[in-house]
Design goal:
Keywords: Disulfide bond, Membrane, Oxidoreductase, Redox-active center, Signal, Transmembrane, Transmembrane helix
Radius of gyration: 18 Å
InterPro entries: Thioredoxin-like_fold, Thioredoxin-like_sf, Thioredoxin_domain
Number of helices: 10
Family: Belongs to the thioredoxin family. DsbA subfamily.
Shape: globular
Helix content: 40-55%
CATH architecture: 3-Layer(aba) Sandwich
CATH superfamily: Glutaredoxin
Structural class: alpha+beta
Protein name: Thioredoxin domain-containing protein
Organism: Saccharopolyspora gregorii
CATH topology: Glutaredoxin
Order of helices and strands: HHEEHEHHHHHHEEH
Length: 253
């Protein structure tokens, strides 16, 4: 199992390394640069967020996006761009997002978008296909949880330190989860290789590029990029507290 890392210092991005460290300050500068480029020529103040950055709400989340939870009033939407084999994403899942999903269930809309980084994580796209194929049968959320809860069974190499590239082992695990979730396994396997699933993943990747996403996990709250601050702590508990505070602020508006 990859060892746990500082959540504020680790993020996976497009690199040939198996596990890529991204310093938050540098990532923030890259994102700001992307936002400035995106917003160049934007004249309409109504399209801008409260902090002067562009409102990317319609880019990072769509009505048909996969959702972990949904709020009836649609007041607060969290969008996460993730890579299922990314160690940082798995660590965020275990240390942050799973707790937030449970705590704010029914109060926020929590959207998942795919951003598999194949050079760093050779099974990431296969896992994304498995999740999307389960979604065709209405079981995206369940497969999402199964993939992360069973991360070590398919995503980690036998040495326990690096990510795996064993496609056959991963497919066996995905099929087992499909069966356990009560899916039509034959349809599940066919949908994994379907144009419908491929197009959804490509659309997520294109939207990620438009939004200036550089690595995973990347979060947007009501269309605004969100990152934790090192000034407020460097543990996963600190990140949970920061994210909770931000969501409660948005809910209180």
């Amino acid at each position: 199992m990859p060892k746990t890392t500082n959540p504020l210092l680790k993020k996976s991005g497009p690199s040939t390394n198996m596990i890529l460290s991204i310093v938050v300050v540098v990532a923030a500068l890259l994102v700001v640069g992307g936002i400035l480029l995106y917003s160049a020529g934007q004249k309409d103040d109504a399209s801008q967020g409260g902090n002067g950055a562009p409102d990317l709400s319609t880019v990072v989340a769509h009505p048909d996006s996969n959702k972990l939870s949904e709020s009836p009033d649609g007041k607060v939407t969290v969008a996460e761009f993730l890579d299922f084999q990314c160690p940082a994403c798995w660590q965020y899942y275990t240390g942050v997002t799973k707790q937030i999903e449970e705590e704010f269930a029914g109060r926020i809309t929590f959207v998942n978008r795919n951003f598999p980084i194949a050079k760093a994580h050779p099974l990431a796209e296969s896992a994304a296909k498995a999740a999307e194929a389960a979604g065709v049968q209405g079981k995206y959320k369940e497969m999402y949880h199964a993939l992360y809860d069973d991360y070590s069974a398919w995503a980690v190499a036998p040495d326990g330190q690096n990510v795996s590239d064993d496609e056959a082992r991963a497919e066996k695990v995905f099929d087992q989860h499909a069966q356990q979730l009560g899916l039509d396994v034959a349809k599940f396997k066919a949908d994994q290789e379907s144009q419908q699933v491929a197009d959804r993943i490509k659309k997520d990747q294109a939207d990620a590029k438009t939004a200036g996403v550089e690595g995973t996990p990347s979060f947007f709250i009501n269309g605004q990029k969100w990152e934790p601050s090192t000034d407020k702590g460097t543990t996963y508990a600190d990140v949970v507290n920061q994210l909770r505070d931000k969501l409660n602020q948005e809910l209180a508006k």
